[in-house]
Amino acid sequence: MQAYTARAHTNIALLKYWGKANQTEIIPTTTSISLTLDEFYTDTTVQFDETLTEDQVSLNGQALTGNSGDKITRFLDDVRSMANISAKASVKSTNHVPTAAGLASSASAFAALAGAASSAAGLELSKTELSRLARRGSGSASRSIYGGFVEWVRGVDDQTSFAIPLTEQVDWDIQLLTVVINDQPKKIDSRGGMQHTMATSPFYQEWVGNTNALTVPMENAIAAHDFTTLGQMAEANALQMHATNTTACPPFNYLTNASWDVIQLAAQLRQTGIEVYATMDAGPNVKLISKSTDTDQIQAQLQQLMPNITTVVATPGPGLKIVKGDSI
To answer: Residues 140-152: pLDDT tens digits?
Structure first.
């Protein structure tokens, strides 16, 4: 069968996904809104081959085994079932994202896998169907099917939980400056962290209600190109999400002292008239929502605060791209 390659870009949630109402089908407790980024992406090539006796999966040139490999095989089983085929697959993936460091590598990884595997299996899926398929691998992957601003409608079941585009072509000045504090795998993965918080934090349900109440205001801010309102809501929502982790039992925290230094720097910069807002996923790295006109000043302040820090500037990125063959 023909090989197909897909490229999907990672996304950063402005309104967070942190918890599942249905663990099996990955149905979230909140509707989330994200921005797809140009800088971080995954390329994945899939070919189904009748001569293979098992799936062969590699990531960045290394064979993927254990739980990670099993997760890919289960995902491929879903694709095989949809396409009514039995052939095993060769999967070669290259991640241009620090894996498991809170930069949403699973979002680009499973969005790319959904695109490449479904095409290689002979399926012709709509973007809605691709979003639903990607969601089964990683919830945030549902959003990486689209570029620009994206909303993952939480829904109530597999059929109703998928992402929709809000503005794929972003024509106003907004960027994400990622401060890479630590690019190593996290001690607590996102899936385990959100389950523990959901089960034990007394403030979790309040966070869910507050997040869902922000959906329409965030949609309105995006439509109006209202950078200030968007930034304020995104920073508050992220901080409140991390607060639920610290109130879990036992408590845990993805943020480090260095993370808090960057968050506080953002607040100080706002006092000087430079609009910048912090957001963080499940990891220590801080993403600064900012404007391109302020990049030099923000980076200068970061270098003064942390001379050896690595920063990456990302702008709104494209949606899923799929091509026939093994290159893109």
So the answer is: 999 999 999 999 9
